[in-house]
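Lab notebook, bench 4. Continuing the backlog of folding jobs that were queued last week. Each job is logged with the same field layout so the records can be merged later without manual cleanup. Today's entry covers Glycosyl transferase, a 607-residue chain. Filled in by technician R.K.

JOB TYPE: sequence-to-structure
TARGET: Glycosyl transferase
LENGTH: 607
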Amino acid sequence: MNARTKEIITSSKQDRTDGFILQNIIFPNLQSVIPEGLYFRPHNEKVELSRAEPEILYVKEGGRVSFDTYFNGVTIERWRELCAIENVALELEGAGRFVVRIGLHQLGLPHRWLLEKTVSLTEGERVELDLPFWPDLQNGMLYLWVEALEDGHLLGGRLTTTQKPLRDVNLAVIITHFNRKPFLLPALQKLAHALKVDPVWSERLRVIVIDNSQNVTEEEACGALVIPNKNLGGAGGFTRGLLYAKDHGYTHCLFMDDDASCDFEAVRRAYMLLSYTTEQRAAVIGAQLRETVPWQLHEAGARFINGRWLARKHLLDMRDVHHLLQAEMNDAAPNYGGWWFFAFPISAVRHFPYPFFVRGDDAQFSLQNKFPLITMNGICSMAEDFSVKESPMTRYLGLRATMVLMMLNGQTKPKPYLHTFLTWFRGVLFSYNYASAKALLMAMENVMEGPEFFLRNMDMAAVRAEVGALKPSEKMQPYDLKDVEVAHNHHPDGKLRRLVRLATLNGNLLPASLTRDDLRFQTKNFNAAFRDIFRYSQVLYYHEASRTGYVASLDRKQFFTLWKEGIALSIRFGRMLPELQQAYVKALPGMTTEEFWRHVYEKELKD
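JOB STATUS: finished
OUTPUT FIELD FOLLOWS
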């Protein structure tokens, strides 16, 4: 055991006024759906959490608990290499006598204990443990382990440093909202409560709601500034917030979606990273946890490469130490971050968002500005899976953005474009989602109109109405399963069956007599599992959590009509690509300037 000591430390009333808090040890509250295992790991039955505020971790005599977890582990690389912090200490709060150890996990190396001490905690006071081994560490996860020598409890703790921040951060937390009050208002209440509990943060940041639906009242805002705004989507809303922040002396912005929920500790840690990072232009990306599987990463930053949207660290299990270490590896560095949580210095902005309305605006903002991008365990938000929200409208927006981003970022060969379009198109056709197929055709047609299309349709009102009117509807609606007979069995795909599926375009070339007149169950996702719906005439797409769904029916006539349109459109797009790409690249600088957006909001900025 390295640097091991056995001295007993007693409580001190010193509040370390000369120190700066890098991150806190936190516990989940009553409202949190995130498992306790992402906060602490009990090693016997003598550990119990009270989630009622304040959250208290009770540890009976002999109880052992560790904090090598997603929210409470310490990522050494971020604070040591990225921020060049040379000294840290650990403060603890609670009551009782504990054996305290500091452990180290590293990929590919055996576990090590670095420190052991016995501490006595007294209610209302803090104990400070210096970590003298810190300058010698380079990577891995540092964490706290405790064993109770008598019945006691822990209220939390914090990692501190006496090293001063490199810069003062004045943070504008920008939330763009459109008709999602059930998500927005709880988020505002949570932020307001955090600022009330720790009022020093009221001097460091301001919460600003860009209200594209113009329906949030001052009372509902819980102290946040509400700016009514015309609906130009996320691109327009976040840009309006960026302009406000720049005009009112803020140094940094944090973009957050109105339906993304995060603990205030994520905001605090992002703030401290921005204060200390040696890379002045760095931006902090919040990871996204999956709402339906809250211990699983959707992504920790992402990559847009040749038309492919690649989620980094996708589906890693944040309960597993090995996966936690993998999540912090800097392999396959992200080239963009989602705006559900994206914090950046305003001084680093060379190009404003592209007027995509939504989808693609966050990717182009990162790609064009080339921010050095930071992720860190514990900085995250939680949101509904994208697959659940997939619809004709989101598919339209997604394909449109993908095609334009490819043109703006140097893809000149037609093959990747056509492969992307036909993959998306085949997926919805094989899933009987014909409205989505029509929306994808519309997206390609609109892209082929050139960059002027985006200027003419910045509010997307006409397009949204047109896509919304597509039939058959794929809108998720309340659906009762009790009186419905659905087939749930999965069909294994043998070699012969798979060949038949491929040869018949997943059954579309089969005669109607070979099609089963049954309803096939599918969990709502981007597309159906093609092998499971093969030879079924109807598919029920269902979301269990919301008990909503819709039925899609096989229509061979529509399939072949749309398939022919898609092939003809692909050929026309391939021929147009060189000229079309030149037009988009030429127009890009003028459509992403501050002056462009100030002209768009000329009236609003004067009011």
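OBSERVATION: Residues 1-8, 10-17 have pLDDT under 50 and may be disordered.
SIGNED: R.K.
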